[in-house]
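Final report, closing paragraph on structural work. Over the funding period we assembled a curated collection of sequence-structure pairs, and we close with a single example.
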Amino acid sequence: MLWKSIQQILCQKIPENVYSLWISPVTVEEKDANTLVITGPDSFFCDRFNDNVMAAIHECLEEMGQGQVTVRLEAAVGQSLSAAPRTKQMRLPSMPKTVPFTKSLHPKYTFDEFMVGNCNAFAHSACQAIAEDRQELGNCLYVNGGTGLGKSHLSQSVAHHIVSHSPETRMQYVTAQQLTVEMVKGIRTNTMPDFKRKYQRNCDVLLVEDVQALSGRTKTQSEFAETLDMLMEGGKRVVMTSSLAPNDIKDIDAGLRSRLSYGLITTINPPCFDTREKIIRRKAGNCDLALSDDLVGYMAENVKGDIRRFESIIVGLKAQSALLNAVPDLDMIKETLRNIIGEGRQITPEMIRDFIAGQFKVTINDLQSKSRKRLIAFPRQVSMYLARKHTDYPLAEIGQALNRDHSTVVHSVKAITNKMARDGSIRGQLEHLSDKLEKKFL
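Its predicted structure, as stored:
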């Protein structure tokens, strides 16, 4: 029961993505009243766990008045981290010395753990093709999508697959921020030849996360463009992820923008209802948590967007179920949702679309159709305008709810804004709809 209490405090003390990354994969055994044994998947994970969250765990114990408790961290094989020295992997004379990056990979971010749906099926297939070195989709892939939709899961799945099936492959996995820091260090210490050798000549697969972070970094953009040229000309594999499409990244060189668009571009969209159900069932199964179809359906209906939320909710349900010694029911789920996502549901473009359809007495199919009749086009533009006003969703995701692209959303927002400025009745109508929307959802 001590660990359950620690988990509850940790949920408040550390961000939910950190909790999902480090706390969910471990198992904990309370040896006695004064000893906790935390077991991680492997020694690499335990190293990072020790660096990232062990201090927070000790703080929790102090707050609970349990500062005398000993916390022991072990790898899944049963060996304590300090039990035996690690052996160094042998290296062929022709291979360059590299620092292993696998410790930065989440152990559960594999293809087997990725839930495939209409929202991400193409991105999943493309990443598998890259991982297996199949050439039908080319050797360069750009994956974009909103926060928490699975971009990092897919890119790390590629890395896990290559490490497992082709360990001799020379691979680099970095974020754009890490790439920038490393390049700046190379310039300051006059070691840029080493930087170029690492990412251009001694690299078979390059995985770069959060490419949008290169915005405004002129020198890094230049070096990255040169690196992409070298790798692509050599037939090497490149996977990039970003929260924005190449054309939507601001303050980026036209040459680099062209290179980012060189290969296959695919988008991960927010999961649909069926995919959310699959994700909830998988995460609940991983935690040995039994949920009825009705409870899964309720959660899938009320939690949308960032997939990491599902992990936090399942962990919260598991903790409550264990503490109360009760099977999860609807009241328990509602309480957990309130604790994690607040009193109201997170408003989405789909919810606004459905609301507007009801207000204007049209169907969702009408709003998603190609019809340009004013009775259809005006409510469609209003839906996009209100979604832009009341949500933080990217333009592409707002457009997707109405089968439109981001440029149509921009046009619709401008059109409604101009109409409101010219026509007081339209301005009053939009203000009235906005008030009704806030009372209903916010």
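Strands lie at 27-32, 35-40, 70-75, 140-145, 171-175, 205-209, 237-242, 264-268. Residues 424-441 form the longest helix (18 residues). We thank the funder for supporting this effort.
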